[in-house]
Design goal:
By secondary structure, the protein is of the alpha+beta class. It has helices at about 20-35, 50-55, 75-80, 90-95, 100-110, 120-125, 130-140, 165-175, 220-225, 240-255, 290-295, 300-315, and strands at about 5-10, 40, 60, 115-120, 145-150, 160, 180-185, 190-195, 205, 210, 230, 260-265, 275-280. Helix 1 (about 20-35) packs across helix 12.
């Protein structure tokens, strides 16, 4: 049996990514139970804080995706309750969850990110959509990627190849958030590099190459088995593999993250790595990328998670990075 004591896995919540979170929670809970960890899975609902206070667990593993799970809210609550938890501090989560802010931070750290613009819905509505869209195309060209400035799982994200399709993409994006991030499309190989730190410093796992059959790694391609082909490790030249691994660790450190993260990148035809996104709560479903990378790196998901839990329990309830 594990000496961790009782572990609470948080999964569910009220974001658009609730179903993904529940799937992540079930998979990790099962993996932990298989190696003897005492696990209770709970939803993030109105009874959560009272339950945690009435019967405090030894350590908490938040597997909530999207708002409340990755924006620092649940981390703030756990800190207020005095409970140790796996993952980044509330402040670091807020910084990483805001994509335009994360772009600025990682660019200052020397990483390349696509040229972009940010448009709040109110600006788009009040200053004239047609003029703004023309200006966007003039500056960024086509194709572009339109996605919510805060969010995950590619919800509300669209690859736009024709100017005629841009208005609909903006409307779709605003259904998931107040601000849209419009980025220049980078053609190349899409990869994801997960970073874990069980106490010896952040280390990259093997890069996962992502090849969706539709050509776009959207929500359906992410979570529907058989719709995306993965290559682990990614089919990259050795020096390019080193480049994307270094970029992921640099992003992890620059954003002040801890325990685990996942960085999504595009490698262009010249071998240059472009950072797309940094995720502080990587998915743990059957099709998710961190578990695939862990397996390729010779790590058991349950054992790795137990080590992350032990590291979190060891540092106590402090919310310092």
């Amino acid at each position: 049996m594990s000496d961790l004591g009782r572990v609470v896995v948080l999964a569910g919540g009220l974001s658009h990514e609730r179903d993904v979170s529940l799937r992540s929670g079930r998979r990790v809970s099962e993996a932990l139970r298989e190696i003897g960890v005492d696990v209770e899975q709970r939803d993030a609902d109105s009874e959560l804080l009272s339950a945690l206070r009435a019967d405090p667990p030894h350590v908490v593993l938040p597997l909530l995706h999207g708002a409340q799970g990755e924006d620092g809210a649940i981390q703030e609550v756990l800190s207020l309750a005095g409970l140790p938890y796996v993952g980044s501090s509330a402040a670091a989560c807020r910084q990483a969850f805001d994509k335009p802010v994360a772009k600025s931070v990682t660019e200052r750290a020397g990483l390349s990110t696509p040229a972009a613009a940010v448009l709040p819905q109110s600006t788009f509505r009040e200053l004239g959509a047609a003029v703004l869209l023309d200006a966007l195309i003039s500056r960024l060209g086509l194709p572009v990627v339109v996605k919510p400035a805060r969010g995950g799982s590619a919800l509300g994200a669209t690859v736009v190849r024709s100017g005629d399709d841009l208005p609909a993409a903006m409307v779709e994006c605003y259904a998931y958030g107040e601000a849209a991030l419009i980025e220049q499309w980078i053609d190349g190989t899409e990869v994801a590099v997960s970073v874990v730190d069980t106490g010896g410093g952040p280390r990259p796992l093997p890069a996962v190459e992502i090849v969706p059959e539709s050509g776009t790694y959207d929500y359906h391609a992410r979570y529907t088995a058989g719709t995306t082909e993965f290559f682990v490790p990614a089919r990259l030249r050795p020096e390019t593999s080193d480049t994307v691994a270094d970029a992921a660790v640099t992003a992890h450190r620059a954003l002040g993250l801890r325990d685990m993260s996942r960085t999504d990148l595009i490698v262009d035809g010249h071998g240059r790595a472009w950072l797309l996104d940094v995720n502080v709560a990587p998915g743990m479903t059957e099709t998710s990328l961190l578990p695939q990378a862990a397996h390729a790196g010779g790590l058991d998901l349950g054992v790795l998670t137990r080590e992350l839990l032990a590291a979190a329990a060891g540092r106590g309830h402090t919310d310092r990075v």
